[in-house]
Amino acid sequence: MPNSVHCQTTMKSFIPLALLLTSVHVTTAGSAAHRCFCQVTGTLDDCACDVETIDRFNNKEIFPKLQKLLSSDYFRFYKVNLNNPCPFWTDHSQCGLKYCAVKPCTLGEVPEGLKSSSYKVLERIPIIIQFLALFVQVLSLNVCPCSDETRQALQEWKKHDDESDRFCMLDDEDSPKSQYVDLLLNPERFTGYKGPEAWRIWNSIYEENCFNLFLIKGQGFYRWLEGLCVEKRAFFRLISGLHASINIHLSARYLLDENWFEMKWGHNVSEFQLRFDKELTEGEGPKRLRNLYFLYLIELRALAKILPYFERPAFHLYTGQHTQDNENKKLLLELLHVAKSFPLHFDETALFAGNNKEAMKLKEDFKLTFKNISRIMDCVECFKCRLWGKLQTQGLGSALKILFSERQIDAMPNTSNTNPSFQLSRQEIVSLFNAFGRISTSVRELENFRSLLSNLKQ
Predict the structure, then answer these.
(1) Are 303 and 53 in contact (CB under 8 A)?
(2) Is residue 224 within 8 Å of residue 211, measured between CB atoms?
(3) For residue 432, is pLDDT > 90?
(4) Is the dihedral of CA 278, 281, 287, 292 positive or negative?
(5) How many domains does the chain have?
(6) Is-contact 327 425, C-beta < 8 A?
(7) Helix, strand or coil, per DSSP, at residue 351
(8) What pLDDT is recorded for position 436?
(9) Exposure of 409 in the CB half-sphere (CA atoms within 13 A)
(10) Which residues bind FAD (predicted)?
């Protein structure tokens, strides 16, 4: 279950905000835009990049292309198990709010290429070829198929399926409980899910981020954070950035009005202020927004590094619609080339770069901690929140897997008759791009909120 060590100072930063959400209604702005964004500018910590460069690059270059790609069948249909039991506590109930519901796809709504699992065959063609070559070699050497040598060879062949290189837990797509969901028909937005149940999830996530460290009482949290190694500092900023991004989505797609003939969803400026205004968050809000940009750089870097994997002729965005599949691959490669062209990428080589033994231990702790956080998503009571929480944590986990698999990616062969040393499942691919789509949308929405806050009556 989640670590029993409590990040007390971290929680102190977030609990007052939870109370504000139920008791405060913002009616005046003063210098509202200044209070939310005054510190969201300039160079980011632990990076060579600045906020303004990210804004321009995302809003003009990345966001339009990414939205077009995510509307395609390959990326809009996501297979997920929303019925996994919570592994950490037993008093787990289901959200009764009507906006928490998720509508799964019927068989007729899912493209044939996905429904028939033909894409799995295509993904495994290089592996099948290598297996056949290995089998021929076994026969030519008159080696018993059950010999130790053969077992060892087959174990090496199966390495790509090993969970050890993953940073998150993935659902079993073959489980009868897993269902396809059309992400475009189940958008992430405010469902009314909040209060103690929602904060129990975030408290558990931040507890996992403690890395079993006890905090000195009375010490400022960010002073403590700056004293950590860069890896642990980066981990906290990733989780904080993800939290900020989700809060932006909920504020941007808020139920503003409901009557018998229509529902109006839109930007709730007051909700945004409650989550990010410097005065209403004890100075935390702008820091959370800066961490969003840090998360953006991490996921953008992963897209730049994975380009060779998708450039291979053997890779297909297979849905069974040949012409559209080819067009989508071209669009995907165009997007990845744009991502690679970004001038100030995050330098992941600074992570896990110390003493080799200590670095490997820290990397393993990093991986196990994030896997535990991905499992916490099965405890979210709102099904729509669970859907998007699972997708975004899996997407970030896939990005981390890419960042720390550089040797395997560089060693990938150009031919299709050799087993690649690096593999991504369709679930990882769909979550990777949709998770980045959520981060990209958050950055784009900040421009809208800046404008809305600036136009409020002073």
Answers:
(1) no
(2) no
(3) yes
(4) negative
(5) 1
(6) no
(7) coil
(8) 98
(9) 18
(10) 189, 191, 202, 240, 243, 275
Q: How far apart are alpha carbons 436 and 156 in whole angstroms?
A: 32
> Helix, strand, or coil here: 80?
strand
Bridge partners, 265 (sequence order)? 255
**Can you give the length of the chain in residues?**
458
Q: Cβ–Cβ contacts within 10 Å for residue 181, how many? A: 22
pLDDT computed for residue 34 by the predictor: 82
Q: What are phi and psi of 283, to 5 degrees?
A: 85, 0
DSSP string, 148-188: HHHHHHHHHHGGGG-GGG-SS----TTSTT-EEEETTTS--
Q: Which amino acid is at 199?
A: W
Amino acid residing at 184: L
Domain contains 341: yes
Specify the 3-state DSSP secondary structure of 253. Answer: coil
Q: Are 250 and 42 in contact (CB under 8 A)?
A: no
Neighbours of 258 (CB within 10 A): 11
149 within domain boundaries: no
For residues 236 and 232, give the distance between their C-alpha atoms in angstroms, rounded to a whole number: 6
* Distance, CA of 215 to CA of 208 (rounded, Å): 14
Q: Provide the 10 A C-beta neighbour count for residue 314.
A: 16
Cβ-contact 225, 233 below 8 angstroms: yes
Q: What is the pLDDT of residues 25-68, one digit of tens each?
A: 444 444 788 888 888 888 888 787 889 999 999 999 999 999 99
| 3 state DSSP class of 266 | strand
Query: Sign of the CA dihedral 239, 240, 244, 245?
Result: negative
| Token couple for 94 | 């289901």
Evaluate if residue 435 carries a pLDDT over 90: yes
Domain that holds residue 269: 32-119+161-210+220-456
Please report the pLDDT score of residue 26 as a whole number: 46
Residue 188 resides in a domain: yes
Would 9 be classed as within a structural domain? no
- Answer whether 0.90 is exceeded by the pTM: no
Backbone phi and psi for residue 258, each to the nearest 5 degrees, phi listed first: -145, 130
Query: Bridge partners of 343?
Result: none
pLDDT in tens, 153-196: 444 444 444 455 777 778 887 788 899 999 999 999 998 888 88
User: Which residue ranges make up the annotated binding site?
Assistant: 189, 191, 202, 240, 243, 275
Annotated catalytic residues are 382, 385
Q: Enumerate the known binding-site residues for FAD.
A: 189, 191, 202, 240, 243, 275
Beta bridge partners of 337: none
Q: So what's the pLDDT on residue 271?
A: 95
Q: How far apart are CA 325 and CA 339, in angstroms?
A: 21
Q: SS3 for 238?
A: helix
